[in-house]
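thought: user wants a sequence for this fold. calling inverse folding tool.
action: design(structure=
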């Protein structure tokens, strides 16, 4: 590798970290800015089928386009499970797992109760098995590289880690008031509204960080061929 190549690689890596940080700051800034909106405006923007939910679904669509345009087709085919996972995230955001099933595809009662007909229960089980197989494929094929990337502090892996953190955070604050009420803990309306803002913008942040990871992984892929 020439000195010019080393400098170019360092500049690209610095730019990758800046890109990652800028995306994270965008998510945090959006959460902060929404606090200056009235409660009515927040409710309108964050409602089911509202602006931010539609933007989140659009974000997953952008992720698919990025995979198909930024990655070589061989990589797209070999890592088919990423495209499938993003489609599932988009369908989940549109509540397909609830609206097309009696109790919800991811609810235990869908499989154990007597409210669901046998044909629907069989279809639900088949879809759940496919979902589990998809997750296992990702874990088997990507875990080692993901951990190695985190140890090396690669921006693409850090972006994936950020999306995983956002998934955990959004699931934790979803229905926070209801969850805490089970422990006889009551929170104020303002705290509950803040939790809603964090949940909805955090959900938007997931495809944003996915997109960052896709772009940066393509950056690393082509860098190996242009810099080394």
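)
observation: tool returned 228 residues.
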């Amino acid at each position: 590798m020439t000195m010019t190549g080393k400098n170019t690689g360092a500049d690209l890596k610095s730019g990758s970290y800046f890109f990652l940080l800028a995306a994270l700051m965008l998510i945090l800034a959006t959460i902060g800015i929404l606090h200056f909106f009235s409660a009515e405006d927040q409710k309108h923007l964050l409602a089911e089928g509202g602006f931010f939910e539609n933007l989140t679904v659009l974000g997953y669509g952008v992720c698919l386009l990025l995979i198909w345009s930024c990655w070589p087709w061989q990589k797209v085919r070999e890592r088919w499970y990423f495209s499938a996972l993003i489609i599932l995230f988009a369908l989940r955001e549109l509540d397909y797992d609830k609206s097309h099933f009696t109790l919800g595809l991811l609810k235990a009662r869908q499989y154990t109760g007597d409210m669901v007909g046998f044909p629907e229960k069989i279809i639900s089980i088949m879809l759940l098995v496919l979902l589990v197989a998809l997750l296992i494929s990702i874990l088997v094929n990507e875990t080692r590289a993901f951990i190695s990337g985190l140890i090396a502090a690669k921006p693409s892996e850090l972006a994936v880690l950020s999306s995983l953190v956002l998934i955990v955070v959004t699931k934790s604050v979803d229905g926070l008031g209801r969850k805490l009420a089970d422990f006889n803990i009551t929170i104020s309306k303002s705290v509950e509204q803040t939790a809603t803002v964090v949940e909805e913008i955090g959900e938007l942040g997931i495809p944003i960080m996915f997109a960052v990871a896709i772009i940066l992984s393509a950056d690393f892929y082509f860098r190996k061929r242009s810099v080394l």
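thought: summarizing for user.
answer: Here is the designed sequence. Residues 3-226 form one domain.
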